[in-house]
Amino acid sequence: MNIVIEKNSYLYQMLRSELIDAVGPEFVVTDDSDRLGHAIDYYWIPEMWHDKGGEPTRPDFVVRPGDSEQVAKVLKIANTYKIPVTPWGGGSGSQGGALPIYGGIILDMKRMNRVLEIDTTTLSVTCETGINAQHLEWAVEKAGYSTMHFPASIACATIGGFLAHRGTGVLSTKYGKIEDMVMSLEVVTPTGEIIRTLPVPRHASGPDLTMMFLGSEGTLGVITRVTLKIHPIPESRKFHAFLFKDMHAAMQAGAGLMQSRLRPCAVRLYDEPETEHLIKRVLGIDKKGAYLVFGFDGPEKIVDLEMAEGCAICNRFDPEDLGTEMGETWWTNRYKFFYPPYMFHIPQAFGTLDTVATFSNIENVYWAMKKTVGEHFPDARFIGHFSHWYDWGCMLYARFIFDRFPEDPAEAAALYNRVWDLAIRAAIREGGVINEHHGVGLKLGRLMPELYGPAFKILEDLKNQLDPNHIMNPGKMGFQGVR
Amino acid sequence: MSQLEKFREDIHACRYCFMCRHLSAVGNVRFSEADTPRVRALIADLAMRNPAVFAAHPEYVETFYDSELSGANRFHCVEHYDEVGIVLAFRRDAIAAGAIPERVKTLAAELRAEPVKSSGSGDFIYIASGYAPADDAVETILKKRKIAHRTVRGAESAAALAVLGFDAPALPLDGAKTVLCGSPAVAWLLRERQVCTRTVDEWLAAEFPARPGRKTPAAYLPSDYLKNYLQSPAIPAMLAALGLEPVAIGANAEESYTAGEGAVVLDRLNPALVKQLALRVVEALPPDVPVVAGSPYTARILNENGVAARTTAEMAAALC
Q1: Which one of A14, A384, B135, B138 is CB 3.0 to 4.6 Å from A398, fit for a cystine?
Q2: ipTM of this complex prediction, to 2 decimal places
Q3: Residue percentage of chain A with pLDDT more than 70
Q4: pTM check: above 0.90
């Protein structure tokens, strides 16, 4: 339900006038088309709702600020009237984090898209956070560098979206997740103060405010500006693929790669069902087993040495060597998995049970989730791959897919939510964390207290202190709605 | 059957897909969600299910008339889902439902009043673009090559009517052996009607040998029709014929740099939007090199916005 005033009321017009005064008349939008566009993101529930003919919750206003000062003005207005504000970057999040579930103001950040500085001495880029990630990458590449941030959503998401949800890219294993790439932030707090975090990411000057805002999903303020590390474009990047008899053997090889302290730029391991279906469908590699691909980049001599070592580690586990070509094929087609018709889509019900755990726990997490889905939802398929690897463990990109879901949207939503409740709890019991890079949003907010235990109160206290009226992205991440 | 129904698969592919967002030319200058293939498909989905949507939501219909129709998103898509086809189908269904925006109705009336005229004789037909510098250049080349020809004027209006969603009049092409189109939009329209045509760029590529000697650096803005609609392989040979070495524009080669060429008359329908699109192109242009446009529309718009852009026809005429 919308908690905001009726469109034909004078209060609505008062609010509209104040927003126009803050950002200019052409940047306060109330037309049906844009409001519809902001009512549905990449979360399955609003997609299903639309597909079934349901009316999604639309924002009352779409506001496009042009700078941090304008963001601050909008938040102050929203505090005055206690109007919800939901920041929106590209809208391509899968967790419902950008949905205006109470109506109110969508703060569409895309107008704040300037590249402010490319510092070729420090190797950093400073930009506004509404910039499309591909546009930023192109601008940095033009200067001879790269952000090395290559998520599947690069073409649609904004940098602010990645910061808000602690996003990651294909090359995370070497270059890190977005939080590893950040030097410093500018943030507009919920009450409208513009603050900057310290200019370097490593220091001993108290707790790290930068990390506090990263992943806060617009609930603790609006990240308006960021300085990110950039990198020289490597001389060489090479990939190699192997096929293992099962996922366990492939996991041992992948963990071995990481424990050797080689520095692959990417490692990806597909379980047997995903290898048999998705790898065959997208890459045309028709094999049974577990497909593992990895790559190295940098000076070619070093890449060749690392690749030889990496292959030697894999060969200890008796794989079929698929060679360089089947590795390069994966790299070339890495985004293809996410385009229609290759991506799962309605009439299927599907979701990514994104979790992360240590090497000691990750296989247990996989089997616990698979068992839970199999036992409780016999109509669902369960597939998975392990896609972001660390010294200590890796991320599991598990997915459940129903080929059909109940006609009644309420029943469909209930079924969908039940999968998450059971599967995520199974993961938590085995040492998994509910999300690695998609964020929490609306989808998983209810599970945050279970994940954190008593520590969740610290997050709630922080929220209460920074956002006393709870105007910022209310109802997300397990925080309560507008007061 | 509604026109949109023919695009059901494309609508369903696009309505929840964000993968081409970065190439939405209008979305990139307005920073809007509405002006993207995703949201247009969401709206088309609603209209396909319930034609009452056309009349109930005039803002939805307006959104479809702000599309630049560059085809860049479709070309980028792995499966090339036809987001351009969705827009054109929506327009035709909106017209059938009587939900035509007033500005579109007025423009259509103006276009119908612009007659199609033919002059000259011969089985070689040049269909003028309506942009005098480009048309004069083609006439110069034809004269120097002693090619007897007929010139058809006003065909751009026919292409515009088709793109707006109306029935376009037939063009007087009887007896033609060669049809050369000054406007790539008209070439596309005729090819949709199974008429064999050449655009000026394709003609230059086929008829003019590569120019020897040192190449001239230039910012070449390809026509969206050639690049994204027709995927014409002629561009490299045409540039060689003109002795041009293309210099990179902006930071990428994927987005449309035509300021709305695909919509044919976007400048008459929404001049403020075209100004925004033109400024984005101007910002992307490399400094200190000549600017050469593959479409007369783009050359005209850039000239109106302070850039001395020439068409490929003008470049070729200067070399003759």
Answers
A1: A384
A2: 0.95
A3: 99
A4: yes
